Structure formats: C-alpha cells, structure tokens
Task: inverse folding
C-alpha cells in the first residue's frame, strides 16, 4: 500500500508544479520556465519516492518497467490507478490556483492538443512523432539510471543505503524531463505522460477529449519502445564455457555446476559436520576405467 500512496503523492507533486507554472506564470516564465518546473518537480519527487516505489510517476514508465522485468505485471494496474488519481487531483488544484471562472478556461490552457490547439499550429504527424520519440528518450534515460524496482516493501536500512544512487537518478531524470519539455512544449504542450493529458482534458471537454487518444497512446508507445531498446543495449552477454586443465587431472567445464560434497568415510573421523569435496579423477584412474 505504501508504494501506491507514494506513486499518487509523487504524481500529484509533478502535475501540480508543472500545471501551476502554465496556469499562473506561463506568460512570464515562458517555455523555459515551464520546462524547468516540470523537470524540477520530477527530480524532487523522484528523490523522495524512489526508495519507496521506484518513482515511476507515469503510466508509460510503469509499462516500460514491467516490459523490462523491473515490475510485477500485477502491480501495473495499481500503479496506474494511483498515478491517475494523483495526476487528476494535481491538475484540479492547479486550476483552482489559476483562478479562472469558469474553471474550464484554465483547463483549456493546460490541455494538450495538435492542429489548431497546438501552440505552434503543428499537425497530427508532428504531434505523434513528438509524443512518441520524446517519451521514449525520457524513459530510456530513466531505465538506464534506475535500480531494479523493489518487489516488496523496502526496509529503512535498504532505502538509506541506496540514497546516493537515488540522487543520481533524480538528477538524471530531472534533466531529461526538462530537455524533452523544451523541445515538445511548442508542439503539443507535451504530455509525455497519459495522466498529464487526462486531468485537464476531463475539465476542458470538447476537442481536448477528442484528441486525448494521442496523448494516452503516444507516451505508452514511447515507453514500450524505450524498454525494447534498453533490453537490446543492456542484454546480459552469453558467457562461453571455460575449460580448465589442472596437472594430472581430466579437463572439466568451470561454469558447470560443481560436484556435491560427500561425507567422510567412517575411518576418517574428523568431525560430524565435516564434508569432503571430491577430488578430480586422475588420468591413470580414468584410463583404467576405460580399459575395463
């Protein structure tokens, strides 16, 4: 349960910080300021939540983690539900801070879109490429710097021991998230996260709901592409068997399962728990066995 709460709170923090930057300070901050708000929000929440849940904070990341074998498939639904709740509440709070009446006006400002709803009037093709490719780049960075997702409740000692690696992870994903927003904000206001698009679209209605499919499927596809690339690049190399030859012994494969230790004979009374490892067969014994 702690992991799901951590995902909900972390996603809320990211969505609230970034959406507030758009709703309140978008004109003064510009695209650079909004990108920094999203990036710093991800970095801060990752540093706090990574020891507990792995800090996915994004259904696309959770799907990629499951495909890469980092997360149990049975956790994907619970993680996604927690992230959805946190993201919708974060967007709702950001719209309340924005103060527009009706609230749908602020939601329209936050909602992602293409064609006439794109800040740069970019079409559907450009929107698909931006959402898929930029999400894939971000998820690839996250997969490369993150530890294997904890499959159980981590202990306090384990969480503290991994703090340095979590700090590196938070810095890397924060920079990556800032970078993709600098590129993608003029195209679609960049979702890169289905939850980021869902919250404002629910309140904006109209074309925001009609175009929502792209900002749900695009990031999910990008996450799967990143997971596939990661599996290819970081696949464990196949180890060839190494043949070792000791003086007076027959060759044997070093990477095969070692022989099981055998108990001592009755006349070798050294101790009840003493075990004798079998010696490799000598050449003379092997030859005599072959003759017989």
Result:
């Amino acid at each position: 349960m702690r992991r799901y709460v951590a995902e909900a709170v972390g996603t809320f923090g990211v969505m609230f910080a970034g959406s507030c930057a758009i709703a309140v300070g978008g004109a003064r901050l510009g695209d650079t300021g909004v990108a920094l708000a999203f990036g710093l929000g991800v970095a801060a929440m990752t540093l706090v939540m990574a020891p507990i849940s792995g800090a996915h904070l994004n259904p696309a990341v959770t799907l990629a983690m499951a495909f890469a074998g980092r997360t149990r498939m049975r956790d994907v639904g619970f993680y996604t539900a927690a992230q959805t709740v946190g993201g919708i509440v974060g967007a709702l709070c950001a719209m309340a801070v924005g103060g527009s009446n009706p609230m749908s006006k602020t939601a329209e400002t936050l909602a992602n879109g293409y064609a006439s709803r794109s800040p740069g009037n970019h079409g559907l093709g450009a929107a698909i490429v931006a959402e898929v490719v930029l999400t894939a780049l971000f998820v690839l960075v996250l997969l490369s710097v993150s530890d294997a997702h904890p499959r159980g409740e981590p202990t306090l000692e384990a969480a503290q021991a991994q703090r340095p690696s979590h700090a590196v992870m938070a810095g890397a994903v924060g920079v990556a998230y800032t970078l993709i927003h600098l590129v993608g904000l003029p195209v679609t206001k960049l979702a890169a996260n289905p939850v980021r698009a869902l919250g404002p679209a629910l309140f904006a209605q109209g074309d925001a709901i009609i175009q929502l499919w792209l900002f749900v499927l695009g990031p999910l596809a990008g996450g799967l592409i990143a997971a596939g690339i990661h599996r290819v690049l970081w696949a464990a190399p196949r180890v060839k068997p190494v043949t070792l030859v000791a003086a007076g012994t027959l060759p044997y494969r070093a990477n095969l399962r070692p022989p099981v230790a055998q108990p001592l004979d009755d006349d070798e009374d050294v101790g009840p728990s003493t075990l004798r490892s079998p010696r490799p067969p000598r050449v003379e014994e092997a030859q005599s066995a072959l003759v017989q």
In short: Residues 26-53 form the longest helix (28 residues). The chain has two domains: 2-233, 240-292. The two ends are 67 Å apart (CA to CA). Residues 144 and 229 are 11 Å apart (CA to CA).
